[in-house]
Amino acid sequence: MAKIQFASGTGSQLSANQTESGQFGQKALWIDEAYLQWKATPNIKLVGGRMSNPFYQLYASDVMWDPDLKPEGYSEKVDVPVNDRLGCSLTRHSSQPPTPSRAAGSATSDKNVWIIGNQLGSQNDPVRRDQADHGRRGLRVLQ
């Protein structure tokens, strides 16, 4: 599957909000998402490009990415059904940091730096009516 999604606004990584001003002036158009997705098996999904946040989250905080963030890179998700009521999942995302950290003269300018994020989760439906999702995530910067 391939997806391309456009958005207007300021071009910010965290928002596609558009201020309606300037009367009939032209607005900028940005690529919001553009990725290729391949489902290798019913339980394995591979994605590459600029995508929606691949990690499951209940809310946004200063510790985790904003839900509007569209990271660029590679993502893998593996779902492992244990039985009809319990399942596990592993999500992994790899991307390079934004260009300011790779500017000439910075500590990482001559290194191939990648940000690697992993999330291990479980899905359970103990009474087949309620579903609960639990997750643990971690981010590392490899230099």
Explain the overall architecture.
- This protein is an all-beta fold and 143 residues long.
- It has one domain.
- It is built from no helices and 7 strands.
- It has a 7-stranded antiparallel β-sheet, with no helix packed on it.
- 8% of the residues are buried.
- The mean pLDDT is 76.
Please count the beta strands (DSSP E, at least 2 residues each). 7
Specify the helix fraction band: under 10%
Global structural class = mainly beta
What is the mean pLDDT? 76
Q: State the separation between the terminal residues, measured CA to CA.
A: 32 Å
> Secondary-structure element sequence?
EEEEEEE
**Percent range for β-strand residues:** over 45%
Radius of gyration: 18 Å
The largest pleated sheet is described as: 7 strands, antiparallel
Tell me the number of helical segments per DSSP (H or I, 4 or more residues long).
0
Neighbour order of strands in the largest sheet: 1-2-3-4-5-6-7
State the shape: elongated
- Low-pLDDT stretches are none
Task: Briefly characterize the structure.
The protein is mainly β and 143 residues long.
Distinctive features:
143 residues, seven-stranded antiparallel sheet, 0% helix, elongated
